[in-house]
Amino acid sequence: MLRELVERGGGLVTRAIAEQVVPEWTLRRACGGGDLVRVLPEVFVAAHLLKDRPQQPAIGRVDPAVGLRAAQAWADGRAALSHLSALATWGLCRPQAGDLLHLSAPAGAGIRSRPGVAVHRRQGLLLAPPHVVVRRGLTVTRLERALVDSWPLLPPGERRAPVIRAVNDRLTTPGRLVEALGAAPKLPDRAALRTLLARLGDGCRSPLEIWGHEHVFTGPGMPAFRRQARVRVGRRTMYLDLFAERERLNIELDGATTHGDPRQREIDLRRDALLATVGILVVRFAHRRLVHETDEVRRETLAILARRPAASGRGRRAVASG
Fold this sequence. Notes:
By secondary structure, the chain is of the alpha+beta class. The chain has helices spanning 2-8, 15-18, 24-32, 64-75, 83-90, 143-150, 160-168, 174-182, 190-202, 207-215, 262-276, 287-292, 294-307, 313-316, and strands at 12-14, 36-40, 43-46, 80-81, 101-106, 117-122, 132-135, 138-141, 226-233, 236-244, 249-254, 281-286. The chain folds into 3 domains: 2-54, no CATH class; 65-202, no CATH class; 209-316, Endonuclease, Chain A (3-Layer(aba) Sandwich). The strands form 4 sheets. A 4-stranded mixed β-sheet has the order 9-10-11-12, sandwiched between helices. It has a 3-stranded antiparallel β-sheet with strand order 1-3-2, sandwiched between helices. Strands 4-5-6 form a 3-stranded mixed β-sheet.
């Protein structure tokens, strides 16, 4: 009976659930016989699911997905998954076995950190919407708060990706993230996150677009480019990386992964030809040139802009706002 209970729980069972169907000694015997391992107080996992990492606490030896469920079972309504554990649940980072698990709890909750699990006390936190939500069956802090909390925990080179992806996937907005950042005035490296959110608010949607915004396509002589400008040609809607509406110039920033892909190249050529039918010139700059030939790209852009005539009224009507 206990084995079936563990299998139904995906390899995990709590004492409270087990003792509803089997006597306490059955659970004790399963642990003594090596079938179950106690990974947190009152939470047990099938022994075969633990990896051979004797230097790690038991909770750090299980698969990350099992670890998240175990942490929630241990919290038992007293805390919610937060920080990087919440980001993993939102699908915005990939956890590894042995990663520290994070929970956030109201200030007066009777739960404290354990080996492998960090409990963060938060004044004013309510374990109900809108402070927490249910995602993939797990109770987690809101995405905006999870992104802000996780910012200083990630290596500097990996911090921006979850934020950019969350905005691109329309899981949140730069405005909501700015509001969440306002509630964390002492966040380490707060200025860098504030700058990133400003760039996303400007319409940048990739690290390359942010680079271009900061180093190439702003400053003297540059127009106020519209970023991710929505254009409709016939029945097709497209989004332009940077669009100088007066000059009818579209600057496209081609990431490193698109270089040398014949299929993507054909798609780009068809798109560029369609834009040409409404008088929009497309100029593409590869990742390598943007990063390593910044000054030359800037000079080329200014020269092209100087030679572009002002758009006609007919051409302007082909561009939708938004």
